[in-house]
Design a protein that fits this description.
alpha/beta, Aspartate Aminotransferase, domain 2, 2 domains, 5-stranded mixed sheet, about 35% helix, binds pyridoxal-5'-phosphate
């Protein structure tokens, strides 16, 4: 085969598999994009250097210095734009730095931002340690309980969402919220880490910016830290680009390569995470020690209808609330797990458990309980092995539950 088939006609899983494949030279070449590590860019002469600099300043995606990244970075950016839809992607050293980039690019002293109360909790630290010092006001609200229009102020510049939310997976009506914000000229950013960009495309539903911790499902192997931001317009790309350069952000070519490698198997991994997590969620629902299971794919989940409308699948995160357990008993349950690791983060191939901190739960207006909650990331192990591990932990910690 000489010519590649027309890309638009291919299914997105196929496009991800072939994203960034280098052109053949002299009739042959490697399957994968090379890892182009460099600290700077070398030019043929000063005129070429000036030309690159000029094109970059005009907004073109050419590299004139090592920080801008070369072929490996471009291939990953293109693959992520293909995944999320949109205009341009920015690669950052962590998911949190992707969030901070968006906040600093869009907010100035005197501005007001509305932030969904179920967001990834460290965003609140960016607010309390950095944004407040810059005279930026962040107001947390419940997108499912509060009326967004009545919260908007003349100086509101940003609506920041995460759907489903961290810990409790509250599904938000991104199309409706985005429509209200856009009517008022407010930019909408949303954290799309949960879906990996595969089960949910917020830019097609009205959001302007999609953020992901590529640390999670894009990488998929718990071996790198990375963030991605995808914007829907040249105007937003220009704003992000200015802040990105000012902050000196970049990622290494090896990490760009690993993320690209992860992307190729994102669809198959997520399909399996969903199958395994559904089996575990259904098991948890039958346990007498469990009062509630949080997983949008369950028909009993309050976000189920919205999830069915706006998502094409569910990922591997399942949380559950104990019926009676004290925090110490919940910790004993987690400690009794053998196959699950104990730790934060998720999105890799392996299963993890985390006892949720009560103060984190109380940040969510959705949260009405007072019993402990455990978050599970269901990995790619055989689900029966995970269920057996959970069953033995319930039995082991039984006297306290
Ligand atoms: C983990 C996570 C982040 C932060 O990503 P890091 O790479 O760990 O900085 C952001 N948003 C969500 C929803 C996350 O789960």
């Amino acid at each position: 085969m000489t010519a590649a088939p027309p890309r638009k006609r291919l299914h997105s899983a196929t496009r991800l598999l072939h994203a960034g494949a280098p052109a053949l030279r002299d009739g042959a070449g490697p399957v994968n994009v090379p890892v182009v590590r460099t600290s700077t860019v070398r030019f043929e002469n000063t005129a070429a250097q000036a030309d690159h600099h000029h094109r970059r300043t005009a907004g073109e995606r050419v590299a004139s210095y090592g920080r801008h990244g070369l072929d490996t970075h471009r291939a990953l950016e293109d693959a992520v734009v293909g995944l999320e839809g949109g205009h341009r992607a920015f690669l950052t050293p962590s998911g949190l730095s992707a969030i901070t980039l968006v906040l600093l690019a869009l907010l100035s002293p005197g501005d007001h931002a509305l932030v969904a109360d179920g967001v990834y909790a460290p965003l609140r630290r960016v607010d309390s340690t950095l944004l407040q010092r810059l005279g930026i006001t962040v107001e947390y609200f419940s997108p499912t309980h509060d009326d967004l229009a009545s919260r908007l102020r003349p100086n509101t510049r940003l609506l920041y969402l995460e759907s489903p939310s961290s810990l409790l997976y509250e599904v938000l009506d991104v199309p409706a919220l985005s429509a209200v914000a856009r009517d008022h000229g407010v930019t909408v950013a949303t954290d799309n880490t949960w879906s990996g960009g595969w089960f949910h495309q917020p830019l097609a539903l009205g959001a302007n910016i999609s953020i992901q911790a590529a640390t999670k499902y894009i990488s998929g192997h718990s071996d790198l830290m990375q963030g991605v931001v995808v914007v829907d317009s040249p105007a937003l790309a220009a704003k992000l680009s200015t802040a990105y350069e000012a902050l000196g952000l970049t990622i290494g070519a090896d990490d760009a390569y690993l993320a690209l490698r992860g992307l190729r198997t994102l669809p198959v991994r997520l399909a399996q995470h969903q199958r395994n997590a559904t089996a575990v969620a259904e098991f948890l629902q039958q346990q007498p020690q469990v009062s509630r299971v949080f997983y949008p794919a369950l028909p009993t989940d309050p976000g189920h209808a919205l999830w069915k409308r706006d998502f094409s699948g569910a990922s591997g995160l399942v949380s559950f609330e104990f019926r009676h357990a004290t925090p110490a008993a919940a910790n004993a349950f987690v400690d009794a797990l053998r196959l699950f690791g104990i730790g934060a983060s998720w999105g890799g191939y392996e299963s993890l458990a985390l006892a949720a901190q009560p103060e984190r739960l109380r940040e969510h207006r959705q949260w009405t309980g007072d019993a402990p909650v455990v978050r599970l990331h269901i990995g790619l192990e055989e689900p029966q092995d995970l269920i057996a591990d959970l069953a033995q932990a319930f039995a082991d910690a039984a006297p306290a539950l």
